[in-house]
Amino acid sequence: MSKLSTRRRSNPGSLANQIYEMLRSAIVRSEIAPGEKLVELEIAADMGTSQGPVREALQRLERDGLVQRQARRATVVTDTTTAEIYEFFAIRSTIESFAIRRAIANMTPEYEKMLRSLTEDMRRAGEAGDMAGLVEYDMDFHRLICEWSGSPVLVNAWMPLYSQIQRFILQTHQHYFTDLGELADTHEPILSAISRRDADAAAQIIAEHVMLIWSRFEKSQGEEGK
Length: 226
Prior knowledge:
Layout: H1 12-28, E1 37-38, H2 40-47, H3 51-64, E2 67-69, E3 75-77, H4 82-105, H5 109-127, H6 131-148, H7 152-176, H8 181-185, H9 188-196, H10 199-210, H11 212-224
Helix pairs in contact: 1-3, 2-3, 4-6, 4-7, 4-10, 5-6, 5-9, 6-7, 9-10
């Protein structure tokens, strides 16, 4: 875990968050592989801190579904089945369909500007070959729509899916989007529906958009099985 080493900070809360973000990033980028053990004592030694902030970070990662605590306090990085990935996307599609209807009712020109800016950020990241940055902007786009719905229920249902889906997307998008800039383009119909304040169209478009990567993945699996 030496790659996680950094200077210790005085605020335990911020240190726990720092450890969480570093571990989370390493897991979703597959730098820490499924099945690998995360040992509190080792991580604490690398970070120059006590085990308390490390334990807090691991608890958050467990809530995200990225790690699982097993017997004798061992913590391992989780893996996901194809069926589970499908369920993540199907649930996310339903949540965002509900969320965008409510978000449109709360939409402002400033909100639209933020979404368009994120789409441009996606495009620039794609042109630069920055897969991690592209996915981060993509997920921010969708997270904001959920937040602007004004529904804590929808946000709380969406957030646990975030890390799992981000991990899958980082691992697969380069295989199903040869032109990374294409991912930014897939958000344009969503923006158009929002601009028209067409809630019905927006709900259908975003539901199909969320399932796009899954449909390409499923198609490729079928072709490989032939």
